Amino acid sequence: MKLSELKTFREATILSVEGDDSLAMRLMEMGITENERILFLGTAPLGDPIEFEVRGYRISLRKNEAARVCIEID
Amino acid sequence: MKSTKKITVALIGNPNTGKSTLFTAIAGVHTHVGNFPGVTVEKKIGKVTWNETEVTLIDLPGTYSLSPHSEDEMVAVDVLLGRQSDVARPDTIACIVDASNLERNLYLVSQLLDLDRPLILILNMSDLARKKDIEIDIEKLGARLGIPVLCTEAHRQRGIEPLKNAILESPIGKERKPHRPFPEEFYRECDLLHQEFGDEELPMFLVERMLLDVQGTGENRNRKNGLAERESFLIDARQRLLQAGFRVPQMEPRVRYRWIKKQLEGICTRPQTHSTTTSDKLDRVFTHKIWGMLVFAVTMFLVFQTIYRFAVPFMELIEEGQNILATSVESAISPGAFRSLVVNGAIAGVGAVLVFLPQIVLLFFFIALLEDSGYMARAAFLMDRLMTKLGLSGKSFVPLMSSFACAIPGVMATRVIENRKDRMITILVAPLMSCSARLPVYLLLIGAFLPPTIYAGGWITLQGIVLFAMTFLGAVVAVPVAWTLRKTLFRGETAPFVMELPSYKWPSPRIVFSRVYDRGKAFVKRAGTLIFMTTIIVWALGYFPGDRVEYHKLESEMHSLKMAKNGTTKNFERREKALERELNKMNSQLMEQSILGRFGHTIEPVVRPLGWDWRIGVGAIAAFPAREVIISTLGTIYSLGADVDEEDQGLQTAIQNATWKKSGEKVFDIPVALSVMVFFALCAQCAPTLLVIRRETNSWRWPVLTFSYMTTLAYLGALATFQVGSRLIG
Predict the structure, then answer these.
(1) Which one of B163, B292, B385, B438 is at 20 to 30 Å from B725 when CA atoms are compared?
(2) Residue B25 is part of which domain span?
């Protein structure tokens, strides 16, 4: 499942980030790496981007960026 | 005499860690702000003396990682390695981290530990961490990392003295053993690459970065410097690492975050359950579908109103001061070229620069408030969807909106956009937004030519519609321009949005003040000199050659008449009026004979298709340094003197009555007025803006491009307006 498909206020575990390009690297540098917990906090009023909590801080990603992250809901 | 020690310290950290506040707290306001050569990165340097040690502090741009993907990001690496020619290599590195967000912040720290320089770790915002129930055992952390760790609350000036001491006590000149978080295979490959490259001077750190950063700046530089053969060595090395089970580039964040987890184990605890803080509650409102948009709209409206309206009294004050100064100079110096140079060139030139200062100061006051409180990131979050439709990102919204008041602070405000392409496009379209200096031109022409037709029982006026259309014309044109720039000069994948949403906090008055001060100072200093020169040039073109003997005689008579004016008699007044008329008439003749006037006649064929006569042409040319100048130029040409404003009935009547010399037909009608307005809406008639673009982009290429594309658009727009308009109406 992709991070972009997560529902509001649901939590998931990150499985992997797809790709080796600068976007994938930026996501991983910001702490989106395997086995971390990620929580969906909300969507911007116009439907994009999305706000998440990871490693104890807030991060916003566009939907197409979140689609690069594979997750698993336990 | 004691010999003074000199050390250089680099301050680095993630964005939103309070780095600027800390820099101001330790360096004071006596900082030098400039640009690093060749890039658009701001260089901020402070020089202080502590205990007889001269300390040079370099404030590096906020960054999440030392993995550079652009020349702009490479600056931090170059400075840290002493490869940036205009600053000394730092003896010590101080890294500031957000104590309430330690895990992610330590990513940069782990990269800095790969260097061999002494490192000091500063845990800032420890108060916020406590509030979030995060506990950090500082002593143990320092022991594990093997570097000094300190706590500060920069916005309260707490922990500054211990930091100064730590910097002074750091083991200068001694190399720290770089930590080696990666598997041995990686370091073996680095050693091999170093041999293969055969460059003794190349620091090991850069070899490591080249290997880690696929398509990073290190690799690109190799290609640029004719060292493309390094590419195959790098590819082979990465291939061998992959076979050994280490996938570059994903290996780096994996290894580092694993290392971070280990360092923090048992010494940093954060509550596992998600707790709702005040910041979260604020966020519920500020990013809410309805309330969030409402708060945003009201905030932007207030900011906009303030720079648009509340700056006016201050601007008037500056103009008033300029007038007083000009008058006193006029009475002190006898008429002549020198006096005209001082009054119409120098004083008018400096005034033209200073008059923007109130808007710059006010806008930066608000931007500093919005940024420091954490709201700026939410504004970008709210607006991103809309701005991506235009090929930009949410971060471009505030700079572009500010440009509606004045493009200068708007261009300066683009510094919040980290992505270079997004920032460049925003800078290049910002001058299209209708700034407050265009308003007088619109008001004059609308007042003079458009009938006061009203619709909907007085709620809507034709004049209002035209004013509205003119105000938004530039913004509408900006959409295809931004799109074209994205498809041509700034091609490539869209920049990642990936943005931290920092916790809300009270803005610190000190940081707000220092940011406003920095921006204001930079503007006056850098732009001031060049705007001054441009004004002098236009003055000279309008003044020479022209024989002014007769004119000066009349001026002197006028002066003595004014001096002698004790009890006003009818005779005096009549003579004064006659003199004034005579002076204005001569002035307009002199203008016609000047280089500028002749040039106006020469280019008349070019502006004829726009429906303009030479006088409008001259006005438009003279207005290139500053668009509102057209009003005083038209005043001069229509023999009213230069002291006119847009509401001047005399000027409105004069241009209504202006006729073509040959046919005697009226020059102005509605299509001509619209054509002039469209030209002013789209043209880059503002030297300060162009010079600020030069300053912000660190290259003449971009102001030249801005000027060319806007002038072309303005001409074509005016042409279309007149040709279509005269067929429809005429």
Answers:
(1) B438
(2) 5-169
Residues of A in contact with B255 (CB under 8 A): none
- CB of B62 within 8 Å of any CB in chain A? no
Q: What domain count does chain B have?
A: 3
Substitution target in A17, A38, A51, A58 with the highest count of B β-carbons within 10 Å is A58
Look at residue B553 and tell me if it is in a domain.
yes
Domain boundaries, chain A: 3-72
Q: Is B381 on the interface with A (CB under 8 A)?
A: yes
ipTM for the predicted complex: 0.96
Note the pTM of the prediction, 2 decimals: 0.80
Is residue B162 reached through a cis peptide bond, with omega within 30 degrees of 0 on the bond before it? no
**How much of chain A is in helix, strand and coil states, percent to nearest 5?**
20, 40, 40
Whether residues B34 and B153 share a domain: the answer is yes
User: Which residue of B lies nearest to A44 if distances are taken between CA atoms?
Assistant: B382
The pLDDT score that the predictor gives to residue B272 is 64
* Interface residue ranges in chain A relative to chain B, Cβ cutoff 8 Å: 17, 20-31, 33-34, 39, 41-42, 44-49, 51, 53, 55-62, 65
At residue A14 the predicted structure's pLDDT band, cuts being 50, 70 and 90, is very high
Q: Which candidate, B480, B87, B540, places its Cα nearest to that of B75?
A: B87
Residue B190 is predicted with a pLDDT of: 95
Q: Looking at beta carbons, which residues of chain B come within 8 Å of A59? A: 498-501
Same domain, B159 and B188: no
B95, B154: one domain = yes
pLDDT the model gives residue B2? 53
B255: amino acid identity, one letter: V
B287–A49: do the CB atoms touch at under 8 Å?
no
Q: Are A33 and B493 inside 8 Å of each other by CB? A: no
Per-residue pLDDT of B545-581, as tens digits, reads 777 777 777 777 777 776 666 556 677 777 777 777 7
Q: How many CA atoms lie within 13 A of B679 on its CB side?
A: 26
Angle, helix B251-264 to helix B138-145, in steps of 10 degrees: 130
Q: What is the pLDDT of residues B244-298, one digit of tens each?
A: 999 989 999 999 999 999 999 988 887 766 667 788 888 888 988 899 999 988 8
For A3-72, CATH gives 2.30.30.90
pLDDT of residue B530: 61
Cβ within 8 Å, pair B101-A33: no
Among the partner residues B384, B493, B496, nearest to A44 by beta-carbon distance = B384
Burial class (CB in 10 A: 0-12, 13-18, 19+), B438: buried
Place of tokens 């912000």: B696
**A44 and B287: CB-CB below 8 Å?**
yes
Chain-chain contact of A27 with B498 (C-beta, under 8 angstroms): yes
- Give the pLDDT confidence score for residue B714 in this predicted structure: 94
Say if B104 is an interface residue toward chain A (CB within 8 Å).
Answer: yes
Alpha carbon of B246 to those of A17, A21, A74, B208, B252: distances in Å? 15, 16, 28, 14, 9
Q: Do B254 and A44 touch (CB under 8 A)?
A: no
Q: B169, B202, B219 — which closes off a domain?
A: B169
CB B10 within 8 A of CB B58: yes
- pLDDT tens, A38-68? 999 989 998 889 999 999 899 999 999 999 9
Q: In chain B, positions 110-139, which contact chain A (CB-CB < 8 Å)?
A: 132, 134
Q: What is the pLDDT of residue B144?
A: 93
Same-domain status, B35 and B165: yes
